Amino acid sequence: MKNALITGITGQDGSYLAELLLEKGYNVYGIMRRKSVVDYGNVDHIKDKINFIYADMTDVVSLIQAMKISQADEVYNLAAQSFVATSWDTPLGTADIDALGVTNMLEAIRTVKPEAHFYQASTSEMFGKVQAIPQDETTPFYPRSPYGVAKLYGHWITKNYRESYNMFACSGILFNHESERRGKEFVTRKITDAVARIKLGVQDHVELGNMDAKRDWGHSKDYVKAMWLMLQQDAPDDYVIATNETRTVREFVETAFRVAGIDVVWEGTGVDEVGKDKATGKVIVKVNPKFFRPAEVELLIGNPAKADSKLGWERQIKFPELVERMVKNDLALVEKEIKAANI
Fold it and tell me: Which fold has domain 1-176+216-239?
């Protein structure tokens, strides 16, 4: 029976990964930051099966202690300040967690159990202003946000420790992956939550930023399988995990409303563009410049050929099903809210 340590275990990816590892018979340890009120987040339903350790990515001593307690054979570093927009507001905090925090975790592993296998959650945001289409493991990086820059440091320090200390350290360059457990600050969940509220009459419209931004969207449940596969290989390496399909924010909006039985028609361009309910003519989508990024990432599309061939990774949940799952989940949640408010 293997021991696994997951940072960021209460988040979207951490919860799906914890479920996967528990199914495979692992002893699962999860790092949590101490708060006045304990918040198990997305692992509340399996909290009794997880060994929680209080630690912080900015405190290497606590990470060393976490390694000593868990004696982890595999370490999955999913902890991050992962909201791109916030990284402009808190660039130093983002760097402390997403960049230096990776070094702290690597040092803790090197100190306690250097033979442990390490997974670093890298991101397609490192490609930023893309230098090739589609992007793969050889594409040059050009990050366009403090988040992307911090993650790039984490990516390269992982490679450096692998080459300098012969550690089994991998980075997964994951493109956008969503799910029913995604936080509402992310545009995909913001959209599906708004669709549910508009459908059920508790919200008039949703305001979004760049409708033409293109992303490669997959489901988190598929992507955590790739993380696990990377650490089962004979040698460590880095892999792009993606769908090789790209869609605009506008397409995501259309698909989400369609799940709720609403057809969207568009009028205007740029900041004056609006989306209307085809049946009623009511404006349900507006563009708000405050949601534009200071430096936009216009297009992301990843080529997962290496992961497909070397890891045997396969994606099960396609884009339409991803959106459908998210919308139906939010419809159920909002309906529950409405019933509770009327009691």
Answer: Rossmann fold (3.40.50)
